[in-house]
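USER: My hope is that you can spare some time for a protein that puzzles me. I am handing you a single protein, as its sequence and its fold in token form. Walk me, if you will, through where the backbone shape changes along the chain. The protein I mean follows directly.
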Amino acid sequence: MGKGPGLYTEIGKKARDLLYKDYQTDQKFTLTTTSPTGVAITSAGTKKGELFLADVNTQLKNKNVTTDIKVDTNSNLFTTITVDEPAPGLKTIFSFRVPDQRSGKIELQYLHEYSGISSSIGLTANPVVNFSGVLGTNVLAFGTDISFDTKTGNFTKCNAGLSFTNADLTASLALNEKGDSVNASYYHIVNPFTNTAVGAEVTHSFSTNVNTITVGTQHALDPLTTVKARVNNVGKAGALIQHEWRPKSLFTVSGEVDTKSIDKSPKVGLALALKP
């Protein structure tokens, strides 16, 4: 475990990654190339039904400054400039999208042994201000995540979370959607040598009185191949197998089936990521 509680986005992240990361029902191809000067170019294409989406991302690094420029099939230009540690523990992120002139945003992240803070503000006349902060240690941490719209004078987001972590177990409890829903998650490493882990997530909505329960597991068949499976209380079951056929290059096959409607065809997704 690293030092400090981390940022608010890390509360419950291990369980979310186990249950949702790499699961997809689309076909995706990603190719990354690197020039001798360190410029990385990533081309990605995704087929969603009859729709095909593509983008090209260029990443340039110069000392502690990283610039990412991405262009997609809708002629949108996304630019993100990250300055890592202009001061100890501090990270500055500036991002904007062209042609949307109101998309500019600047974010500051600060990591300390007993706190993690992230604050962002939109670069407009009436910006949305976001603040998230976590206090505690790498074992026990409490945090909050708030967004305020200065144009309407309303809080658009107000969340709070609690996290407990030890060597092989992570548990979290979060109150989301301005107190309308509560989310509890659990992640446990069963065998670190085979990367075997189990996880669960339970969400309750107070307004609809609906519970959503998802449980899952993962296991490494060998150092290069991992399998995952999950199922939820509405009968949807998913599984995937991911193989690292060369360093940093991954081939993933995932599928999902609705056990309550077995007459429907299962959804299958393929992903291929090639890196030098």
Remarks:
- The helical segments are 13-20.
- The chain has one helix and 19 strands.
